[in-house]
Design a protein that fits this description.
Radius of gyration: 14 Å
Strand content: 25-35%
CATH topology: Alpha-Beta Plaits
Largest sheet: 5 strands, antiparallel
Number of helices: 3
Strand order of the largest sheet: 2-3-1-5-4
Helix content: 25-40%
Shape: flat
CATH class: Alpha Beta
Number of strands: 5
């Protein structure tokens, strides 16, 4: 029997002081924390992939499989600083559809924040 692992898309926002966080620093810290918590096998099975990230709005979109969603949330919660700057990674929205996640990201980027 073949089991299909379904993807989940997490829209997140970074709350921090006035410094900007680059996507490469964010990726490195998330993967490093995930690996410290769940090991190399857990990290490779998670299928983490950063779909997009906006430096100005500090809003991003990351993909993982459905089994590792709670592990990703835990990794987000454990990250408290990147390159000496204190921060908080706040998951805003989780969905199984990439188009819906991208719609949410674009709605957050608009000035009036209308989200269905």
């Amino acid at each position: 029997m073949v089991t299909i692992e379904r993807d989940r898309y997490v829209v997140f926002k970074i709350l921090l002081d006035d410094t900007k966080t680059e996507i490469e620093d964010l990726k490195r810290n998330v993967w490093s924390m995930y690996q410290r918590l769940y090991g190399l096998d857990g990290t490779t099975e998670a299928g983490l992939f950063f779909e997009e990230y906006d430096n100005e709005k500090r809003i991003g979109l990351v993909r993982c499989n459905s089994k590792s969603l709670s592990y990703l949330m835990t990794s987000f919660a454990m990250i408290r600083e990147i390159d000496g700057a204190e921060l908080l990674i706040l998951p805003l929205f989780v969905t199984g559809l990439i188009n819906k996640a991208k719609k949410y990201v674009s709605a957050l980027s608009s000035p009036n924040h209308n989200i269905d």
